[in-house]
Request: fold
Amino acid sequence: MESQILTLVTFFPLVGIVLIMLAPKDRPDTVKGVALLVSFVTMLLSFWLYSMFDKVANGMQFELNVPWITSFGINYHVGIDGISLLMIVLTAILTVLSILASWNSITERVKGYFISMLLLQIGMIGVFCALDLFMFYIFWEVMLIPMYFIIGIWGGARRVYAAIKFVLFTMFGSLLMLVAILYVVSAYHGFANEYSFDILKLATMPIAYKPQLLLFGAFALAFAIKVPLFPFHTWLPDAHVEAPTAGSVILAGVLLKMGTYGFLRICIPMFPQATITYLPYICVLALIAIIYGALVAMVQRDVKSLVAFSSVSHMGFVMLGIFALNLQGVEGAVLQMINHGVSTGALFLLVGMIYERRHTRLISELGGIVKVMPVFATLFMIVTLSSIGLPLTNGFVGEFLILIGTFKANMTYGVIATSGVILSACYMLWMYQRVIFGKITNPENEKLIDLDWREKGILIPLVVLIFWIGIYPKPFLDRIEPAVRSLLTQTNMVREDIGEPAFTVETDGSLSGMTAEDVNLNSKGEVHE
Amino acid sequence: MSDYLILIPLFPLIGFLLNGLLIGRLSRPVVSTIACASVFASFVTALLSFIELTNMPASARLIEQTLFAWIPVGELNIEFGLLVDPLSAIMILVVTGVGFLIHVYSTGYMSHDKGFGRYFAYLNLFTFSMLTLVLADNFLLMFVGWEGVGLCSYLLIGFWFERKSATDAGKKAFIVNRIGDFGFLIGMFIIFWQVQSLDFAEVMARAPHAFIAGGTLVTTACLLLFVGATGKSAQIPLFVWLPDAMEGPTPVSALIHAATMVTAGVYMIARTSTLFMMAPDALMVIAIIGAATAFFAATIGLAQNDIKRVLAYSTVSQLGYMFLACGVAAFSAGVFHLMTHAFFKALLFLGSGSVIHAMSDEQDMTKMGGLKKYLPITYWTFLLATLAISGIPFFSGFFSKDEILWKSYSSLYGHPIFWVIGVVTAGMTAFYMFRLVYMTFHGKERMDDKTRKKIHESPRSMTVPLMILAVLSVVGGYVGMPHIFGVTNYFEEWLSPVLAGHEPPTHALASTSGGGAGTEMLLMALSVLLVLIAIYTARLFYNKKPELATALRGKLTGVHKTLQNKYYIDEIYTAVVVHPLIIVSIGLWKVVDVIFIDGFINTLALLYDGISQLFRHAQTGRVRSYVTVFVIGVVGILGWLVMR
Reply:
């Protein structure tokens, strides 16, 4: 059983997809019910996974490795560590909430919509479970299609532009990634005389410096677009503004994390020397993202695009934490991945609730909402504070760890990043003030009805998580720590080898007598000795 | 037995949760009972811990309680730990004691407000946060309280959320405080980086080995912590939020913006005095900023007509004194003034609240006057507090202010200039306070008839707290009388284990043996004399011969206008920081995002589109043109083959 559980969690939504396909067209409530039930069971399965996870053990758990396409060494290889565990649980929770949030807002092509949601979930959980690059790539692409439909069919006025922009950006990155994957695999063939797509195996292969740089670059570009790291972020505001609420929640909550997850799972372990070389550039881009995202967020007129730019800023923090390459930084980054999913997910849900009532997201159209919707205003306040990173909310723990980690790694970066805490207060509180406080100036806002039980039910789990992670993050940190430690052991060995930060061509025992210049990238197999 | 410490912050937290979650479902008496009882329970527990401390030997006065591991990551191990020592004992007594009185007062003051439940929920949340701040045994937990009180301040300043000025002020307070927090955080990072710990006891124990005394690192860390303090405690250059904070309900001004929260910066410096003693340069900066703020804010206070704004600038000014004390390493004097100030400034704010309440929410002193006969209790208690803040001998403020003045002269870190600034500020303080008293309670009645008819003395729930605070304002100083009176300074002695070794060495001229006592007497007499002159002038200007004040104002229009407009600091900040930031942000968005990045992407798309358009013509779908091309091609190839 234990080795099958990941497969079960990943593919359980298929049951829902089949059932919805069989359901009659004129019974939208049945379709919704099935989708909700199936996603709910998936969530329970993810909780079960969490409870069975051994928080002390090192390495992958619930591993299953069976041959699939043997001639190319492609295996069905799944397994999780603490990082993927938490991402799976987050995905499962957000999917349930997204389906609940779509209850009244989706009236057209209901079957197609919920099939897309469940397919999306399979893709997302699949990525977090995959330990085989081939599977990783397939799941990665699987996510793209339903998301394209969700934005392009159920989105707002400029949905087609946004959907195509989203797909083209992502495809551009993933094609480079595909090339890099094939290169790594063929290199491995030269190294071990067998084909393998196994992420863990491939990470043990020494790769010469120059090809590492190119490979890291190809993967990093794919991931950076997904994060999105400045300057690859411009698809995000468009996608968010046009996507339906649930689309935005999943997009911000999970899809963006695919990028940072990719850095943690693939880029850093496979290309440690290149990581060190690229590190300053990535950190600078992350810093720009933090400041730039916050400043641009401040002057947005649409609440959704404000939250989208705030995501750019927050994800900049995550990137910075990862590339601090120390325990506090990386653990904070992983925690902040969860936090951003919770807080930004909640923000998009809240904005969606207002949108369903007022059919606008323009800040200038709102104002004085607290008077007619006090419960909404209170929950909005809590989520706003968590996004600002107020102590005792989740945002603080993540941000603090990232900042202290960054400061240890590089004082200047740490100081610049810390100024982000001022800016986040500026744009969030200013927005909150204009949306919630003041007198009601627009008569349409007079008759708004406060949240109903369904809507409260959607938000309360997230609020509970906000405080839980804020007050007692230990259970989460405990599970993240072994995974982060093993990641850092690898990179620290490299750092010591190369006498960080200056890089010398001779990097690795296995490379002795051969300079990186000797390695010709275009010939396969000779990237290492 | 130390397991009970958690109860001190827990009671108000429970009060907050009850009032917050059951909002709208509890009757007003229940709400106020929960709120007041929770703070009172917390006060009693604080008193218990104080008594427990007094029963311990002086050097071992310490109660600790560790609750759970909060953020354990590698060598960073932050715990939820509380600590009561002589310093935090004073703080929790002030916070819960004065806090309780203000809660009681609020039940009367806010009785007609529709946000009654929300108000008390916030007030309890504030008390919880403030207690967390002072009880924390490490920097990060202190920061939790630090941000928590900032949040409550934000919520309570913007309590009347329909007023844009109120929500603006709340937001301003939060953001300006965040600027300070930026400093606090980085200071904390430096400390963690060097000391590998954020626990107060560990940091103070290891600091002498981890830092080079007087070195750049420790000085930078201290200065950054002080930046945090300038935000929370409204010092130059971050004081701008406090006067605006008067948009909140008056009891809030008394509790948060006078007695407790704004003193957090002083407390923090006293708590980490070991570090600051290692950074004399930082101390000098603190003393200079403190003295400058004291002086500068007092000058603004001279020309304000809003009763609460006068008090607000007075608070900024008095906080300046406390920092001056810290800056000359007289931490005990700073904390002493913190305590007496909590009594008399809370009383002044509550008194002004009573006046505003009576005047149907009028705050402009030019529309008051002659209120003495209508509001006798308010008047007499207010007068006592005014005497205390002015430093009239034997009132509480006299002892604490005098100690600061003396230390600012006699300390090795002091300087006669500090004393001069301090004394001149004391004179101005007496002047603007008596100006306030005369304009409000004496002279002609300048309100309209409608308002006059409604003037009434406040209910018991409000006057009783006034009277209790009046007693404290009078006698509160006797615990810390100066040595020259031939008595023990109990306050200093009580704090000495915490601030041990920090009593500033005096330079030879001021030492008690070398005629120091005489100097101290002389300086004290001088300051009292100046204060008396100031009071007399105020009486002359605002009571006896108001035409003198008008004439003077006429002569000094420029100066008066500058003071009334607070040196245009807000306008300068708006022009130099706020507007440029917004313009830059819009520029980034419209230029970098829209023109550069998306422009590039869309041009690429267009280019691709153009190329495709070019080739599209080949795909006409007409068989005839395909055949034509086919024939031409075949002929061409054949021709080429033949011709070759």
User: Anything to note?
Assistant: Residues 24 and 117 of chain B are 7 Å apart (CA to CA). The mean pLDDT of chain B is 90. The beta strands of chain B are 63-73, 76-84. Chain B touches chain A through 46 residues (CB under 8 Å).
